Sequence to fold (794 residues):
Amino acid sequence: MNRSVPVVCEEVSLAALPLRQKARITGFDLPSDQCARLLEMGLTTGAQIRSIRLAPLGDPLEIEIRGYRLSLRKREAEGIRVARV
Amino acid sequence: MKSHSPARASHRPGKSAALKPEEIARSVRHIAIAGNPNCGKSTIFNALTGLRQRVGNYSGVTVEHKVGRFYGAHGEPMSMVDLPGHYSLQVRSPDEAVARDVLLGRRPEEPRPDTVIAVVDASNLERNLYLLAQILDLGLPTIVALNMVDMAEQNGIALDIPALAEELGVPVIPVVATRGTGLVELKQAVSRPLALPSRRPPMPESIEREARKIAALLSVRQEVAFPESLLLLTLSDQALDDLAEHKPAVVEAVVAAQQRLREEQLDPLCALVEARYQWIDQICQRVMRRAQTGLSFSDRLDRVLTHKIWGLVVFLCAMAFMFFCIFSLAQAPMRWIDEAAHGASQWVAAHLPASNFRDLLAEGAIPGVSGVTVFLPQILILYFFLGLLEDSGYMARAAFMMDRIMSAVGLHGKSFIPLLSSFGCAVPGIMAARTVENRKDRLVTILIAPLMTCPARLPVYTLMIAVLLPTASALAKAGILLSLYLGAIAMAALLAWIFKKTLFKTEKSMLLLELPPYRMPSLRSTALRMAERAWTFVKRAGTVILALSILLWALVSFPKLPAEAKVSKADAIAQSYAGQMGHWLEPAIAPLGYDWKIGIGLVSSFAAREVFVGTMAIVYNVEGEEENTLRETMSAETRADGTPVFTPLVCVSLLVFYMLAMQCISTIVVVRRETNSWRWPLLQLALLTCLAWSAAFAVFQGGRFFGFH
Fold:
C-alpha cells in the first residue's frame, strides 16, 4: 500500500515526527476500520500532514490535514506512517 | 416553472381547504439539510425556519428528529429536516445511520427528500467535499450552500465559485449564515425546478461494475438501488453479518463481489475514499488558491488556550466561572419558585375546605410543579454556557485538554463537562451528555453521572456527619465530606472502566476530534437551543416527575387515620403506605444497620435526597427542621433493647449508602428521556442501588466484625 508514494525520506510514525514538521502520509499500521475512518477524514496516502502541538497533559496530538485541525491520540498516531518532505 | 404548481396549490386559500392532509404532505417540497459537524448547518436551518420547528425523536433511537417549515421564494410552503451532523454516510453511530436512512428514504417518519441542501464549509473545503461526493452519489437533486465564505477569505483562501459549481455539476450558493447573507438566493435555488446533479464523482471502474450487479438484485425503489448497493459493498465483514434486512442472496452477492475486488488488490471502501479525494484534489487545484498567511487568529489563541500551563489555568477558571454563575444566578429564581410554591400551597390549604383534593393540591401537585420548574434556572444557564462553548469552538479544546484524564477510564474528553455539570445537578449534567457524539461514550457518561455528588446530598451528609461526630471540628467534618466526594468519584471511575470492559467491549474507542477555528458564538442559536432544551425538559421529563412526586406524596399520606383520632404527624407517617414500606424494607436494610423508620426516609427521599432530612424530622416528631434538635433527637433515639439507633457505624453506613445510591426520581426520568428507553435508567437504578447496598453492608458488617459499633 505504501509503494504508491515514492519514499523521499525515511519513514517514521506520525507520533515520532517532530512538531510542525511537514510530512506526507505513506501508509497505515492500523485495524482496517480505524484506517477507513482516518481515510474518510482526509488522511489519504500522499496527503500532506503536520503535527501542531500536544495537549497540556501530553496526549492527544493536534494535527493539520487538508487545511483543518484534527486531534487524535498518540496510540493511533503511532500507526500512521509518514515521510518528511 | 411547472414543477412547483402543486406546492402553490396547497397555499392558495380557496383550494387548500379541499386538499386532504396526505395530499398537502405530498405537495409540500421536502428538503433535507446535510453537512459535516461545525459547518454551520444548524445556523442555516434556524435562519430559514426560525421558531417553526418541531423536535421529536426518531423511533427506536435516541437521535433528535428536527423538522421545520419555511416558505420558498414564491411563498410556497416547504418542510425541512435537519439531519444530524456527520462526516460520512458510512455508518458508525445511530446519528449517522439516521442521516443515511433519511437520505435513502428508509425512515418511516420522513419521506425521502426531494432536494438535499448540502452545507459545505468554504474554509474547510476539501474535507467537506468528501461528504458531498457521497451525497452526489445518492442521485438526489442537490444544492450546495457554500457557508462561511467570509471566513475562507480571511484565511487567505480564494475560491472560484462558478468553476466550483461547474465541476460539481450542482448549483453552489455562497452563504454567510451567521449574518444571513445569501439566504434569499438559497431560497430561490430551492424554489427552482428540481434537477439532478449533472455529474457524478468518478469511482474505480470495477467498483462501479460490482455495485451495478448488486443493485440489480435489490428489491428497493430503482432510484436508490445504486447508492444502496454502493453502501453495501463498502460494509465491513462484521457489519455484513448482522444485515437482516436483505435477502441472503444479496449478502452472498456482496461477499462475492468484495472477494473479487480484493483479488484485484482493491479494498472497496479504501479505494472509493481515495478515488473521491483524488477527485476533490483535482477540483481544489482548479477552484482554490491558498495564500500563504501567517499564524491564524485561532492559532494564536490556541497558543494560550491550549498551552501546557496557561491552557489548564484558563480552563479551570472558565469552569469555575461557569459553575459560579450557575449556582449564584440560579439561586434567586430557584428561591422565588420555592417561595411561590410555598405561598400557593399555604393559600390553597387556607382557602379550600379540608379534603383529599386540597391535600393533593397543597402537598402533592404544587410542590411537584415547583420540583420540576426549580430545575429550569440551572438548565437554562447551563445551556447558555454550553451553547457559547460549543459555538465558539472552545468545547473541542476542553475535550482536547481533558481527554488524557478521561481516557484513563476509557471515556472521551467530551464526557468531562457533562460529568462536571453533574456536581451541580445530575439532571442538566445528563442532558449535557448530548455533546458526546459517540453513543457508547454517552451512555457510560450518563450511567456514572449520578455518582457525581450533587448539592441535594449535602443536607443528608451534614445531618449524618453531625450525628456521627457532634463535637468534631469543622475541619474534621470537611475532611469526611471531601472523602465522600472522592469516594464517589473513585467509584464512578471504576464503574466507567468496568462498563467499557464489559457492556461496551466491542467498541474500539478512538479519538477523532475536529478542532474547528474559534468563532463568534451566535446568541440567536444559543437562545433557541436554551428554549428548546428547557421546553423538552418540561414536556418530556417534567410531566413524569410531577406524576411520580404525586405518587410519593400519596405514599406518605395514605391511608389516612380518622381525623378525630388526633394523631401526631409521626404516627400518621408510620401508618402510611410509606411507613408500611419501611416495615417491608426492614429485612432488606437491617443488615445495613437501619430500622424501619430509616426505611421511610429512604423511600421518601426518592423525591429528592434532601427530603430524607424532612422525613426524619416528621418520623421523630421534631417540629420544624431545626438541625440541632433533630440531631439531638436522633442521637438519643434507642431501639427496643435500649441501644442507640444511630451508632457511628449506622451513620457511616448511611453516608456510604447516600454517596452511591441513585435516590432521585428526576434523574431516573431524565435518563429515560435521554436514552429513549426504560432499560438504561432501570439498569442504572438497580446497579447503583446494589452497589450502595453492598458498600453499606460491607461497612456495617465489616465494622462490626472488627469490633466497632
